[in-house]
Amino acid sequence: MLRTDFKVYRLGPIAAFDSSAHSVHQILMSAYFAKYGIDSYIYLRNLRPTKGEKELSSFIGIKFQDKLHVRLSSKHKGLSSLQNFITLLKDLKKNLGSNNWVFLSKADHVVKLSRLKNLLNFKIVFENHQDKTFIEAVKKADVVYTVSPKVYDKLKGFPKVKLWTYHYPVKDELINFSPEFREKEVYTLGYLGSLNPEKGIDFLLRAIKNLPSKLKIIGGKSDKLEKARKLAKEYGVIHKVKFTGFVPQNLIPSELSEVDIMVAPFTDEQKTIPLKVYEYLAVGIPTIASDIGPVRIVAKDYFFYFKPKDEKSFTEAFREVTENPERTRRVMIESKEYGKQFHWKEVIKRILSDLEKVKC
C-alpha cells in the first residue's frame, strides 16, 4: 500500500516510464498489460501549477482500467525527475512483484537506471523516438523500440537486444472517416498537426499562391500559428488560408469533411516517420507529400509525391490528383484499405505477437 496526498492506492505489479501518457504510450502499455498482467503503472509528468504553487515534476499513479489519477505523497516532490523515479522505486521495493517494467524514452535515463535493474527487479524498455542510435542505452536496455528506419537498419543485428519497429496507432475517429472526392474549380487543401519547421509550412504557404486552392491548417500551438499567419500575409495568401488552432480529436472528422486533398510538405530535416503519415493513410483523403524516405517507406504508392521544397513539383502533384479523378478515387480506396492496419487495435495485436517471440 502506498499512502498519497489524498488517497490510498493499491499497487499491483508495476511498470513505469518517463514521459506523459499520450496515445502511443497507452497503446504500447495496453499490449504489455494484456501480455504480462500488469494492472498499474507509474509515469513522470510535469504537473500544472495551481494558484500560488510553483510548477513541479512529480509522479502520477494511474490505474489503467479506470484511469484513476493519484498524486503521490510530498516525500517524492521537489526532486529531479530521475532522482524522483529512483527514490520511488526503492521505496516500493518490498511491494514489487515479478513483472516490473520501466519504459524510458531518454537515453541517459536508460543508462543511469540500468545500474538498479537487478537490485529493484525490473526490466527496461527503451523507446527511441529520435533519429540517433544511442548505442550505450541500447546495450543497457532489454527491449528497444524505434520509429526511425535508419536506426532500425543500424541496430537490427545488435546482439542481446530485442528490437523492432512499431507503428503509431490511429484512433477510431479517423479510421471510420469516409471521404469523397469531387471535381471542383477550387480545391481545399488540408494540413493536420504541428507547425514545427521540419513540417514544411513555410514552403506550403508559398506553394499555394498560384494554385486554384484554399488551405485549411488544423492544429498548431499559438506561437507557431502566429508565425504562420505572418508568413501567409507576407506571401500574399492570407485570404486563402484558414487556421483552426487546436481541435479536439473527436471533432477532427468534422474539420476534414471540408478538405479535398491532404498535404504533407515535410522538409529533408524530417528523419523519423511522422504520425500524420499513418493518419492520412487511414483517413483515405488523397494526399500530396514530400518524397522523403520516412514517408515513402510507410505510404508506398498511396500518396502523390513531389520533390521537397520544389514548388513546380508540388504543382505537378496537385494536377496529378485533380486532373485524373478516377485514378485519385481508386488510390483513395486502396489507401483506406491499406490504412486499416494502423488502427490501434491492430497495432496492439502486432505488439503482442512480437512479445510472444521475446523472452525477457
TrEMBL record:
<dbReference type="Pfam" id="PF00534">
    <property type="entry name" value="Glycos_transf_1"/>
</dbReference>
<dbReference type="InterPro" id="IPR001296">
    <property type="entry name" value="Glyco_trans_1"/>
</dbReference>
<protein>
    <submittedName>
        <fullName>Glycosyltransferase involved in cell wall biosynthesis</fullName>
    </submittedName>
</protein>
<dbReference type="GO" id="GO:0016757">
    <property type="term" value="F:glycosyltransferase activity"/>
</dbReference>
<feature type="domain" description="Glycosyl transferase family 1">
    <location>
        <begin position="182"/>
        <end position="334"/>
    </location>
</feature>
<keyword id="KW-0808">Transferase</keyword>
